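// run 5 | inverse folding | seed 20
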């Protein structure tokens, strides 16, 4: 994998991870809600005007474009496992930004993910 391909794949992964974090931040800002016909429009409007939600959606769109560019250069059997890096990024940022707990079991799982990505990248 050359440098441009790696940058495209990693950019797509990081944008996708950012989208997840921003969507979670938007649900934290809005709070718990139930889907009912009566609150579909009010809740939908709250999301549509929530900056974190809008940022998350923008990250998803951009990640899709960049990901497709990366897939045009890298075999999917190499590119797709790289998405696992998003788990690592999300766990770390969710801990520091959103205050989520990283247990020993979760940290061990993240370590295995990193090992797997490293093995796939070397192949």
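// decoded
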């Amino acid at each position: 994998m050359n440098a441009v391909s790696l940058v495209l794949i990693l950019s797509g992964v990081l944008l996708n991870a950012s989208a997840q974090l921003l969507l979670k931040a938007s649900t934290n800002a809005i709070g718990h809600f139930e889907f009912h016909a009566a609150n579909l429009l009010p809740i939908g409007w709250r999301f549509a005007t929530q900056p974190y939600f809008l940022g998350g959606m923008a990250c998803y769109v951009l990640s899709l474009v960049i990901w497709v560019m990366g897939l045009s250069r890298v075999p999917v059997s190499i590119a797709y496992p790289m998405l696992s890096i998003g788990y690592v990024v999300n766990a770390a940022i969710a801990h520091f930004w959103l205050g989520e707990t990283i247990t020993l079991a979760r940290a061990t799982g993240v370590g295995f993910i990193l090992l797997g990505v490293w093995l796939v990248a070397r192949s």
